[in-house]
Design a protein that fits this description.
By secondary structure, the chain is of the alpha/beta class. It is about 40% helix and about 20% strand. The chain has a single domain (about 5-160, about 215-230), classed as Carbamate kinase, CATH 3.40.1160.10.
Length: about 240
């Protein structure tokens, strides 16, 4: 494996499967099946999951809700997604722990960096829930932050397309895919890799970002083996 410790960023929509809302048990099992061989090969993996399948804080604010309240609701939705994935991993015989930035004892562990690293070293998948615990920050930013805190070698962002394009490949047939990009190019072109805060933080610490299509089975393993898939963002 090219990488020993990774942070996988999943969108909430990834858990919907073919549905338009909610959590698909079949999709949870599929994600767990993709993660299991990595765990068996000794890769230390953290995960951050969005909440777009349940509630988006930005969307709530756009409809007139108080932004901090809407974001808090979104962070709670990520806890639900994290617990669902933890259950799927455990059913696949992969030990996992949910650590939440918003304390809710009796449901999951409160986040602490040292505790997260200890779980990783003991061979457990760590799912970071509730974003950063603060409003106005997306789960993209939370993913980069947690990746840096645990000393991840790379942050892998799973999407429904096979990398970063100059425009939406699902709408434009002439969209061009990039094999590599620099952080500055992403910011200057306003490419939708992740939010500007997350990109800037990754750039400041030179954390590589790999954007790939998770719908294709085995792509996570191929990416960690160093196969040329997706788009890599580096300095």
């Amino acid at each position: 494996m090219k990488y020993k410790r990774v942070l996988l960023k999943l969108s909430g929509e990834a858990l919907m499967g073919d549905g338009s809302f909610g959590i698909s048990p079949d999709m949870l099992d599929s994600i767990a099946a993709e993660i299991k061989p990595l765990h068996e090969q000794g890769v230390e993996m953290g995960l951050v999951i969005g909440a777009g399948n349940l509630f988006r804080g930005v969307a709530g604010a756009a409809e007139g809700m108080d932004r901090p309240t809407a974001d808090n609701m979104g962070m709670l939705a990520t806890v639900m997604n994290s617990l669902a994935l933890q259950d799927a991993l455990k059913r696949a015989a992969v030990p996992a722990r949910v650590l939440s930035a918003i304390a809710m004892r009796g449901v999951c562990e409160p986040y602490a960096r040292d505790r997260a690293v200890e779980h990783l070293q003991r061979g457990r998948v760590v799912i970071f829930a509730a974003g950063t615990g603060n409003p106005f920050f997306t789960t993209d930013s939370a993913g980069v932050l947690r990746a840096l805190e645990i000393g991840a070698d790379v942050i892998m962002k799973a999407t429904r397309v096979d990398g970063v394009y100059d425009k939406d490949p699902e709408r434009f047939a002439d969209a061009v895919r990039f094999d590599t990009l620099s952080y500055d190019e992403v910011l200057q072109r306003n490419l939708r890799v992740m939010d500007a805060t997350g990109i800037s933080l990754a750039r400041d610490e030179n954390l590589p970002i790999l954007v790939f299509n998770m719908k294709e089975k085995g792509n996570i393993v191929r990416a960690l083996q160093g196969d040329p898939i997706g788009t890599t963002v580096t300095a």
